[in-house]
Amino acid sequence: MTSPDFYLWGYLKDVVYEHETTTREDMIHRIQTACENIPRAVLLRTVEHFQQRIELCIQQNGGVFEHLR
Protein backbone atom coordinates (compact mmCIF):
# COMPACT_ATOMS: atom_id res chain seq x y z
CA MET A 1 0.00 0.00 0.00
CA THR A 2 1.14 3.51 -0.74
CA SER A 3 0.82 6.55 1.49
CA PRO A 4 -2.39 7.67 -0.21
CA ASP A 5 -3.77 4.16 0.28
CA PHE A 6 -3.04 4.28 4.01
CA TYR A 7 -4.60 7.71 4.36
CA LEU A 8 -7.75 6.82 2.43
CA TRP A 9 -8.05 3.44 4.15
CA GLY A 10 -7.84 5.16 7.54
CA TYR A 11 -10.59 7.55 6.55
CA LEU A 12 -12.80 4.82 5.09
CA LYS A 13 -12.21 2.54 8.05
CA ASP A 14 -13.38 5.25 10.45
CA VAL A 15 -16.55 5.79 8.40
CA VAL A 16 -17.31 2.11 7.77
CA TYR A 17 -16.76 1.01 11.38
CA GLU A 18 -18.57 3.98 12.92
CA HIS A 19 -21.43 1.57 13.70
CA GLU A 20 -21.28 -2.19 14.26
CA THR A 21 -21.79 -4.24 11.11
CA THR A 22 -24.30 -7.08 11.30
CA THR A 23 -23.97 -8.90 7.97
CA ARG A 24 -21.61 -9.30 5.04
CA GLU A 25 -24.06 -7.42 2.83
CA ASP A 26 -24.21 -4.59 5.36
CA MET A 27 -20.40 -4.34 5.28
CA ILE A 28 -20.34 -4.28 1.47
CA HIS A 29 -23.01 -1.58 1.44
CA ARG A 30 -21.13 0.51 4.02
CA ILE A 31 -17.88 0.29 2.04
CA GLN A 32 -19.61 1.24 -1.22
CA THR A 33 -21.44 4.13 0.42
CA ALA A 34 -18.29 5.39 2.14
CA CYS A 35 -16.36 5.31 -1.14
CA GLU A 36 -19.14 7.11 -2.99
CA ASN A 37 -19.25 9.84 -0.35
CA ILE A 38 -15.57 10.64 0.17
CA PRO A 39 -15.48 14.42 0.59
CA ARG A 40 -13.69 16.40 -2.09
CA ALA A 41 -11.40 17.89 0.57
CA VAL A 42 -10.21 14.42 1.59
CA LEU A 43 -9.40 13.53 -2.01
CA LEU A 44 -7.57 16.83 -2.54
CA ARG A 45 -5.49 16.31 0.62
CA THR A 46 -4.61 12.81 -0.56
CA VAL A 47 -3.43 14.09 -3.94
CA GLU A 48 -1.50 16.99 -2.38
CA HIS A 49 0.26 14.67 0.05
CA PHE A 50 1.16 12.31 -2.79
CA GLN A 51 2.55 15.21 -4.84
CA GLN A 52 4.67 16.35 -1.88
CA ARG A 53 6.10 12.85 -1.51
CA ILE A 54 6.91 12.70 -5.23
CA GLU A 55 8.70 16.07 -5.02
CA LEU A 56 10.75 14.91 -2.02
CA CYS A 57 11.65 11.71 -3.84
CA ILE A 58 12.81 13.71 -6.88
CA GLN A 59 14.84 16.10 -4.68
CA GLN A 60 16.60 13.11 -3.15
CA ASN A 61 17.21 11.51 -6.57
CA GLY A 62 15.06 8.55 -5.59
CA GLY A 63 16.80 8.10 -2.24
CA VAL A 64 15.38 7.98 1.27
CA PHE A 65 13.30 11.05 2.08
CA GLU A 66 11.02 10.06 4.97
CA HIS A 67 13.29 11.90 7.43
CA LEU A 68 12.61 15.19 5.57
CA ARG A 69 8.90 15.35 6.32
Automatic annotation (TrEMBL):
One of the record's GO molecular function terms: nucleic acid binding
Top-rank lineage group of the source organism: Eukaryota
InterPro entries per record: RNaseH_sf (IPR036397)
Protein name in UniProt: Uncharacterized protein
The species this protein was found in: Trichomalopsis sarcophagae
